[in-house]
Amino acid sequence: MRLSVFVLCMAVHFLLSGSEYQVINYNVEDGLSQSSVQALNMDVFGYLWISTGDGLTCFDGRTFSRYYVRGTDGNASLSNSIRHLISDSTGNLWVGSDFGLLYFDRSKQLLVPAFQGISDLSGKPCLPLFLEEDSLSVLVPPAGIITINLSDKKIHRQTLRQDIKGLEINPIRKNEKWLIVSLLDVLKLEHTYEKGIVQTHYRITDLMGESHRAFLPLTPNRTLFATSGALHMLYASGKTERMDVSSLSFLPENTRIHALANDNSGNIWLLTSNYGIYILDHDFNLQNQIVGLSAQDGSQVPVEAITTGFTDKQGNIWFGTDGHGLALLPARKPLFTKVNRLPDGNGGSLVPFVRSFLETGRDTLWIGTYNAGIFGWNKKQGVIFHLNNGLQYGGFTFGDVYCMLDAGRLGMLTGTANGLWILKNGKLKPVDLSITQNSINKVANIVNESDSSYLLRINNRIFRLIFDENGNPEVINTSFPAGISYELLTRLNGEVLIF
Hints:
4-stranded antiparallel sheet
């Protein structure tokens, strides 16, 4: 059984309630190589990879398989202390260990040292950072970042803006990593389409005596950073803002923050070492408190033992712990809601011909239709937003919605039979498509390349949409031949597919 199951439905996220939650606890007795889990990664096939101080473990949903580092002579004599891992589009793994960079070859089922000809990647701690189509970037303290071209094995070196003294690395988005570089400094590394790896330095005061914990993205411009006694908001501009535990009225004054997590509903999970788990919305309002995690045999999984965690596509929350193995908090089964009619905006109702869906945070579903424009649907409130078929912008009629894509702070990209639109703050604006040299532009597919770059299929041709630093859009040509009719543009397992 694989852990990743694709379900096409109108999904409603689970709601959390109660004071003690039942988790499924996996430990050494179940096949886990060691009870202390340091990192988790789920590959494109839905297999969960678990790094411990004793090699690499793969979990397929039923059984555990163990893998140990083997040298070029085939002997399992190297260190098996694994710190960090990332997977590529074919299911192979790049693994950071205390004694160099490792590579797991799925076809050969072997975990072996990688790039032994590069001295900086052998015999010392390495952490893989960014994996692109033809390159791999690795953090090697104190040398900095080494980027290897996977085709010709050429390397590029980049120094860090600050010396690494107390390293903690947290991957929080596909192309973004955060590093603790000293007692007062935080360094963000971001891989951008235009500039490669960009460094942003944050100077945070009043950190003396506090241990550093974790990062959690809230929006593209705001990231939450937790220390043992406070929360810090880090802004894209480099500005920081501190929130002491005492400023949150529902937290006791002596609360010690241990880690951060989130769920598919966008809630913030605040894990403490002495008062359980607090579940907050993005405005830091208390939604629920979990005072304990009980395993299937009645034993307790201490919250303070949790070292890492993430939410998978099905809403299951996986926790790695120190000394208590792997804990799974299952999501409830999705609920199905049948909707026969939607309001037409004129006091009546209609039967929608649905073309596309887009799910965004806080239980909101966007519905693109053939005959009625866009609906915003909330599971608690019903229809919360509607742009109907007769809405006019710049002489064009808006309707017949083919595709939608959430672009975060840039707005919701909407492809229709009559052009490309950006829905932001309740307002809809058209994007200039004069580059196509057509009066009617059917935008059928949109996929993201990065936070500021998107591929579009317009009239069966491929174009690129880019945004400047002020959020202004521009559609440009691509290198794809114009004489070919492209029938589908999509993303599968992290790869862009064009047919």
